[in-house]
Amino acid sequence: MRSFIIGDLRKEAALLPQFSPFPHQAEAERKFRNTGTIVLAHPVGSGKTFTAVHLGEEARRSGRMQRALVVVPTALRDNFSIEGVKKFSDATVQVFGGKEEARTSGDRVTLETADPNINYSVVGYELFRADPLSFVRVLQPDMLIVDEYHRAKDEDSLTFKALAQVRPHVDQFIGMTASLVSNDPSDVAPLVGLATMGRHPFSDRAWFKNRYEYISGMEKGFFGGEKKRKSLKNVDELQEMLSDVVHYVSPQQVAKDKPRRTVVEVSVEMSPLQRRYYHYALNKLSPELAERVKKGLPPRDAKEARSMFKMLMDARRASNSVHPFSRFFSPAEGARLSPKVVKMLDDAEAHIRSTPDARIMMYSELIDGGMDVLAAGLEDRGIPFRVFAGKGREVAGRKITDESRRKAKEDFIAGRSKVLLVSPSGAEGLDLHNMTMLQSLDAHFNPERIHQVEGRGWRSKGQAHRPPEEREVIIRRYRSVIPPNLGFVDRLLGHDKHERTVDEWIYQTAAAKDRLNSIMRMAMSGQRELIDDPKWVFTPYRDLRLPPANRLLAQRLKKMRRDRDTLSGKSIDREDELLGKDIGVATMDRQAKPPSGEQRIYNTSGRYEYEYKVPRPDGSYRYVYPE
Known about the structure:
It is a single chain. By secondary structure, the protein is α/β, with parallel strands linked by helices. It folds into 3 domains: about 5-180, Tandem AAA-ATPase domain (Rossmann fold), CATH 3.40.50; about 255-530, Rossmann fold (3-Layer(aba) Sandwich), CATH 3.40.50; about 550-625, no CATH class.
C-alpha cells in the first residue's frame, strides 16, 4: 500500500451523518476491511452504489485509500458521482469524458485536465478501454471500483483485458454486480480470477465446470426433443470457496424494504396481417433454426443463443409491430394495427386513470420495431412521456443526449411525466424508486437481463410515499402468440399443437437458464436443502486436482497446517514444501469414517479432516490437505 499523510483524512473521510449502512452493507465493509478485495453480488435495488461509497469512505478514513478509480457504464457516470459520492459523502469526485464532451460540458475532465488528488475519478467503460494504463499513470489510484462487473465475464472481451491490465497496479478492488452468473455458473470464474489477479482456484473456468457442474440426466425439451439437464455438485465446498472473495446477498434478505411485486404474463394473439409478416421473417431463416423456434427448442449453448438472437431480429420486430415491413405503415399506424402494442397502451391508459401516482416504465430491446412504435402510440393517444436510450440515438424525432436522459429521469421521478420509455442502455443502474408498473414489450434470452430490467423500479425503500400495505410494483410481460389450429379430436384430447412464437421461445430459453442460475444462487446463500438434485454431496475419497499451486492458496494451507500441528503438539512451518506441489482438497462430515490408516483430526469447524499422501507413478507423493 502506498504511504501518505492521513492525519486530516481521518477526520474528513466519512459518510454524511444522515446516512447509515444496512446490516448487509456493514457486513460487506467488515469483510472488505480484512481482505481488500471483494465482489459485491447484491441484488438489483439493494443499494450497491451506497455500499461501494461506504467501503471507500471507511478505507479512506482508516488511511487505506486516498484515490479510487471508478469504472462504470458511460450512461451511469453521473449516477455514481451525483447519486453516490456527492449524495452520501463529503469526498471529492471528478467525471471523465472525451475531448469534445469536456469542451462542451463544464463538468467533465480529460486526462490532461484531471486533478490527481481527487478522491474518486469516474470513467465510462468505452473511454477506459481505449487506454486503461493512462488512468493509472495520471491518477495513481490505490483502489479500483468496477460497477456492472459482470461485463467482464468473457475473458476475450476488451473489458476483461482492460481491467486485467490495471488490476495489478492497485492495492484494493471492489466489483459490483447483481448478475454474478448470467448464462452459466462458471461465469463466476473469470470475475473471481480477475479480482484476485489469478490467485484463486476459480480463475480457471474449465476447472470450475469440471469441479462443480455435472449432467444430472436428460429431460424433455420445450414441447419436444431432449436436452441435457445440468446441476451443481460439491455445493458446500463451492459456497466456502466463493465466500473468500464474494459477498452475496439474496433478494430475500432485502425484500422486506421493497414494495410488493406482482408479475403478470400477458399473451396477445397476432393479427392475420402481423402473422403474414412474421412468417415472412421466419422463412428467411434456415429451416433448422425456424423449426427449433416453432417447436420451442432451446439453443445448444450461449454462443448459439447469441447467433440465433441476431438472426431472429426481423421475426422479433414482426412480433411487435407491422410497420417495419411496409413503407405504407408509419410507426403511429403500426401502433394502431399491432395487437400487442395496442394492449400495452390500453393497459397503460387504464393504470394512469386508476392510479393517481402512476409511474410507468415501458421497456423494449429494440429501437426500430420497439421503442419507435411505443413512442408513436403514446403521442397518438396524447400521453406525455420521456425517453431514456443510448446517447446519440434518435427516438420519435428526439435526439438522445446526456442532458435529455438526465431530464427524462428527473421528470419521471417528479411526476411531470407518467411514462418513461427505456432501451437496453437503461437496463443497468437506473433508479426509478417511485415506479408503479413496468411493461416489457419484449425480452432477452439472458435471464439476468430480465432481472436487471425489472429491478429498475423494484427497489429498497421504493414508493416510500405510500402506506406500506399499498406499496406494489406491477410487472407485465407481453408476448405475441399464434392461436392454435386444432381439430375436433385434438381439442377433445387436450392436445397443445400451437406454433411457438419468437417471444415465447425467448422467455422459455431464459427460464431454462435461470433454473441452473437459481441453484447457484441457493448455493451461495447456503440454502442447500432447496437444491433438488441429490448428487451435489461432496465425496471425500475422490482424487481432486486444483489448478497449479499459488501464493494465496499456499498461505491458507500454511495457516491450516499450523493449526493442525498445534493440535497435535507440533510446530512445523511447511510452506516451502507446499509451494509448487499439486494440492488437493478433502473434507468429510463428522459421522463419516476416515480412510484406512489415516490420522483423525478434529478441529473447531465441526468436521473431521484428513491429511494423507497420494503416490505418483514416479514414486514421489502428492500431498492432499483439507480445505
